[in-house]
Design brief:
Number of helices: 7
Order of helices and strands: HHHHHHH
Mean pLDDT: 89
Radius of gyration: 17 Å
Distance between the termini: 34 Å
Strand content: under 5%
Length: 140
């Protein structure tokens, strides 16, 4: 039944969302790596992978990354869901992605931290560019 449902999905829609998700995962990892370096330079060494996981989930230093984490989870749930993918649903996730990834020097929360990360780390700029490349003309 699941295979029959998947056959009804518009051609390429799953691939488009999957490619965007993969680019976001790479950006997310790059941001985490960048923030870890800043944390260790400012606060001190992270003692273990368990300690780092605790910091990622609870520490104010990393909390700004949660909207990106949640967006990736939404994409995972959409790709793994029982309902067929729709163009409208995928386009909504794409719009949400590019709204979230709008850096702002005078912004708040994610947009401000994202702006700062783009200013200090060329790896973040490259990962951001890879995501932006996924945006097709005419999408907002």
């Amino acid at each position: 039944m699941k295979e029959e449902t998947r056959a009804l999905e518009p051609k390429g829609i799953r691939q488009r969302l999957d490619e965007l998700r993969n680019a976001l995962l790479a950006l997310h990892k790059t941001l985490i790596d960048s923030e870890r370096i800043g944390y260790e330079q400012t606060i001190g060494a992270i003692q273990s992978p368990h300690h780092f996981l605790q910091l990622l989930t609870d520490d104010p230093w990393f909390v700004w990354l949660k909207p990106l984490s949640h967006l990736i989870v939404q994409m995972d749930e959409t790709l793994d869901g029982k309902e067929p993918l729709t163009t409208a649903g995928i386009e909504a996730l794409i719009r949400e992605t590019f709204l979230l990834l709008t850096p702002a020097e005078s912004g708040h929360a994610f947009s401000k931290h994202y702006f700062d990360a783009l200013q200090r780390d060329p790896d973040v700029v490259l990962a951001h560019a890879a995501v932006v490349k996924m945006r097709s003309p005419g999408n907002t």
